[in-house]
């Protein structure tokens, strides 16, 4: 019942209840005083009855109005006091105490529900802020580590050059080549960081256009086959010729997605025969892309973390493979920016499959 209806009924009750109760009590007292009397009524008894009526009326008014006022006030003030306490808790930063919400359909319950919704959202925002701060700390620590390693190496080789350790043209060339490679690694890391930071911003523009993934991957693998001509890599595209693989995608960003996945696969493939298979699967609303390699794979425990920034699997923790740890994190950002999803499957020594799903064109 709404507060307005409650107050209206209370006001009506303050008029009707005293009147009804007064009449009932008057009838009872009159019956007690005069029913046994035979003949005329004694004047003193009549005066006494009249005086009692006045006190009775005042008593009934005070009693009924007091009870009604107490009940109505309790039903309004008690929830307000609870809300006040909850508001004080929230102002002190205590967001864990849940606000009590009753099943009553009134303004106070709606207010309590609004407060509880606010508390819940503030708690979520606080958790997100703490997670963001923790991520920032991890980001700074990871950047510091990944930049310090090549910098230390560069300083060592420069010191070797200045000390005359590279005393032959061959050594000097090797030292300079190493310095250049480490500088390139730093440049690549900084470029990845800049891209990831841009993708992390809200409202990143996407130039979405209709794109046939079958034709796209056919051309992409042909170019990749040419670039990897000197490496024993088997490249294959699997798709049904009578299916539609047209999606809405930003071609430049899709190039980055596929490039990062392919480079990740090539980096961790086994020695000898290397295989990379791209499979397309079409459904009514979307197209799923699978890029599978025959590399070392990762454990099932590591699969959920592959798309975390700066995450490196145990098999990748060596200087030979290198990498920024941002490649698959960038993949996730771009695919989610398209409104799609990305995931991985596989197991240790079973190769790795990276999947992503994009919405079909015209949808």
TrEMBL record:
Keywords: ATP-binding, Cell membrane, Coiled coil, Kinase, Membrane, Nucleotide-binding, Phosphoprotein, Transferase, Transmembrane, Transmembrane helix, Two-component regulatory system. GO terms for cellular component: plasma membrane. Its EC number is 2.7.13.3. Residues 115-142 form a coiled coil. It is found in: Cell membrane. Residues 142-362 form the Histidine kinase domain. Residues 74-127 form the HAMP domain. PROSITE patterns: HAMP (PS50885), HIS_KIN (PS50109). InterPro entries: HAMP_dom (IPR003660), HATPase_C_sf (IPR036890), HATPase_dom (IPR003594), His_kinase_dom (IPR005467), HisK_dim/P_dom (IPR003661), HisK_dim/P_sf (IPR036097), HssS/ArlS-like (IPR050398), Sig_transdc_His_kin-like_C (IPR004358). This is histidine kinase. CDD domains: HAMP, HisKA. It is an enzyme of class 2 (transferase). It comes from the Bacteria. The chain crosses the membrane at residues 12-34, 54-72. It holds the Pfam family HAMP.
């Amino acid at each position: 019942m709404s507060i307005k209806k409650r107050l209206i009924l209370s006001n009506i009750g303050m008029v009707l209840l005293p009147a009804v109760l007064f009449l009932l009590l008057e009838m009872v007292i009159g019956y007690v005083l005069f029913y046994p009397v035979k003949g005329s009524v004694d004047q003193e008894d009549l005066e006494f009855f009249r005086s009692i009526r006045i006190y009775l009326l005042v008593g009934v008014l005070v009693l009924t109005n007091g009870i009604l006022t107490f009940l109505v006030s309790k039903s309004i003030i008690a929830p307000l006091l609870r809300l006040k306490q909850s508001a004080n808790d929230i102002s002190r930063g205590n967001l864990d105490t849940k606000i009590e919400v009753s099943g009553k359909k009134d303004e106070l319950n709606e207010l309590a529900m609004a407060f509880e919704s606010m508390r819940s959202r503030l708690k979520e925002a606080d958790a997100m802020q703490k997670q963001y701060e923790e991520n920032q700390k991890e980001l700074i620590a990871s950047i510091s580590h990944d930049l310090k390693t090549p910098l230390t190496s560069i300083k060592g080789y420069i010191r070797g050059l200045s000390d005359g350790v590279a005393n032959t043209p061959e050594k000097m060339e090797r030292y300079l080549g190493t310095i250049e490679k480490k500088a390139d690694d730093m440049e690549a890391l900084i470029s990845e960081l800049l891209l990831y930071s841009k993708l992390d911003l809200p409202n990143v523009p996407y130039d979405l256009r209709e794109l046939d993934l079958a034709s796209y991957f056919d051309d992409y693998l042909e170019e990749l086959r040419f670039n990897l001509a000197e490496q024993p890599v088997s490249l294959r595209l699997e798709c049904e010729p009578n299916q539609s693989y047209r999606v809405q995608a930003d071609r430049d960003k899709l190039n980055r997605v596929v490039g990062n996945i392919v480079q990740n696969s090539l980096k961790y493939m086994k020695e000898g025969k290397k295989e990379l298979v791209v499979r397309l699967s079409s459904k009514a609303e979307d197209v799923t892309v699978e890029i599978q390699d025959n590399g070392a794979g990762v454990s099932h425990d590591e699969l959920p973390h592959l798309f975390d920034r700066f995450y490196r699997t145990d098999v990748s923790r060596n200087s030979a493979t290198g990498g920024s740890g941002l490649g698959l994190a960038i993949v996730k950002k771009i695919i989610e920016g398209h409104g799609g999803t990305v995931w991985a499957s596989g197991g240790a020594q079973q190769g790795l499959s990276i999947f992503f799903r994009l919405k079909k064109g015209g949808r």
